[in-house]
Input
Amino acid sequence: WLRLSLTRAVAPGSPGYSPAHLAVNMGELPPGTTKIYLPAESELPGAGGAVAGETVVAHEKIFLPDPGLTPINIYIRMDETPGLWFTPLVGPAPLNSDTFFPIELVFLGLIPAAAILCLVRAGKDRTVWPLWVAVFLGCVLLQDLLPLPGAGSPFKMTDLPALLAPGASLMILTHVGRLLLRTRRNSPGADLFLLCGMVPGIALCLTPLAPGWSWLVRLFPLWPLPMLFFLPIGIAALARKQNGGLGWTGACFFAAA
Output
């Protein structure tokens, strides 16, 4: 349950008073049903009455009653724990600050385009690392398109792609670093470090499937953070003017961002 308390600093009818015309934008919602309980007309300041529930969908704007000097309470009930970036936004209506921006559509369109270019380069140059980059981009696209199941709720077979994509992305990206920098030949120590970097990816794939550990699903959006540990490998490759150093350094920054 979440509670929003709204009140006014200026009483209705006083000088400087104007209707608030507020709205709440729920943004991204967790799986399941989300209901918002707005005060009925008889429950506004100065009266009493029941509260009615209304089902809410993602990015829906709900117009709120104008509060008075007495706070009015708005309750939000969710079936699942919201994600890390859940930020309901209250402001003047119309409230468009939390909509699906076209820049996100552009980003989603660039991912498959980059994957196709990598496949073309893999076939043209007969190299392996662009192929793995294309697979990595496919995993990233899955994360953007498929919603994660709710933390603590039973998983279904249809949830497996969304559950495995973050861990697979981490494993594939570290393997791309080994191929791009040719660490097996050029730097055995860095090669071992990148191999060890696959272990968190494996754990990320398997741990949520274990009983009692499904709560980790809520932390899946943080999967790129371990890439910062591999950033020194890219910086060292840049210092040696090694091929692939700039690409790997950029990949670490891009993933962590």
The first helix runs from residue 102 to 125. The longest strand covers residues 72-78.
